Amino acid sequence: MSVAVRGFFDRPAQPDHEVVGKGAGLTRYRLQEAARDGVLTDKEIAYAAGDARWGSARDASAVRITVAYPTSGDGESCYRFTLARPLTDRPLADPVRLARCPAGLGGPAT
Asked: pLDDT by residue for the chain (110 residues), tens digit each?
């Protein structure tokens, strides 16, 4: 017989800034891996964002992705990731925390 424990009840929940920071780090990693081949599709962005809402803007110099991570209650915390064009095998997605989330971000990937 085996038992799986899904949480540790003697530890307090992680603060929102830690959870969001870890989510942003994972998104950055996934975006960099997806862009290594020189192409970054909406499907790859959706996978990188996970369950968070996101939006993207593309121009000749960069791809900018904004991701809204849910926080406790009904709040959100947004990060913008910028990947310089042309995308290379060593793309850099610099995350910047935004003071507020912009309107018009799409829903989570399904």
From this structure: 666 666 666 655 666 667 788 999 999 999 999 999 999 999 999 999 998 999 999 999 999 999 999 888 778 899 999 999 998 877 777 789 999 999 888 866 44
C-beta of residue 35 within 8 angstroms of C-beta of residue 21? no
Q: Which two tokens stand for residue 35?
A: 């862009």
Q: Determine the length of the chain.
A: 110
The DSSP secondary-structure symbol of 86 reads S
Q: What are phi and psi of 23, to 5 degrees?
A: -65, -40
CA atoms within a 13 Å half-sphere pointing along the CA-CB vector of 44: 16
Model's pTM, two decimal places?
A: 0.80
